[in-house]
């Protein structure tokens, strides 16, 4: 007991500082865990098990050479196309970054989906989906999405579902594989960043409720249900 007392700082401010540091260290992983638990019944591991929703909301993930989708983004678009082909969704909402003429995520996503057989009449593009919050906010307030399958990558799906649900979208999610497909160090980096981003997401949807980076007038969804 005497040794334990010697290990505990006696200065009040030192104890307060240590407590604050411990809290800051624990908040991100505990928040991440809480969000994953809260969305566990809204996430699916196979496309065949995903229930019907209005659209697949596909999040951007960067471009590769010649403006083509990065491998991560291509995985997401392929999953969205598979959902459309099964009749699980009636259209695709591509949401990404188009901050300049030379960088057009959604145009690349649309071209890739059309190349896989999805008609243009079933694809809506959101050129101002600069981050997860913006994509979900705009899906609800600009495109009037009532229900959606969130199509992203495993590390991101919980936060994306939580954010979209906070705007009243009946959202479920499917995550493309990350572990086992990409380098472990890369996936670890994604998950560390995601843990921190989850804290910000909870703060945004529960406390500050910021507006989007870019608003705008309502835009109708392009819906073209596949024949069943």
Count of discrete domains? 1
- Main sheet overview: 6 strands, parallel
Class from secondary-structure proportions: alpha/beta
N to C succession of SSEs: HHEEHEHEHEHEH
In CATH's first tier, which class applies?
Alpha Beta
CATH topology: Rossmann fold
- End-to-end span in angstroms? 72 Å
Please give the count of helices.
7
What would a concise description of this structure say?
The chain has about 230 residues and is of the alpha/beta class. About 45% of the residues lie in helices and about 15% in strands.
Structure, explained:
The radius of gyration is 20 Å and the shape is globular. With 228 residues, it is of the alpha/beta class. It contains seven helices and six strands. The chain has a six-stranded parallel beta sheet with strand order 1-6-5-2-3-4, with helices on both faces. It has helices at 2-7, 12-38, 71-85, 105-115, 132-141, 154-166, 184-208, and strands spanning 43-44, 55-59, 92-95, 123-126, 147-153, 170-176.
Topology readout:
Elements: H1 2-7, H2 12-38, E1 43-44, E2 55-59, H3 71-85, E3 92-95, H4 105-115, E4 123-126, H5 132-141, E5 147-153, H6 154-166, E6 170-176, H7 184-208
Helix pairs in contact: 2-7, 5-6, 6-7
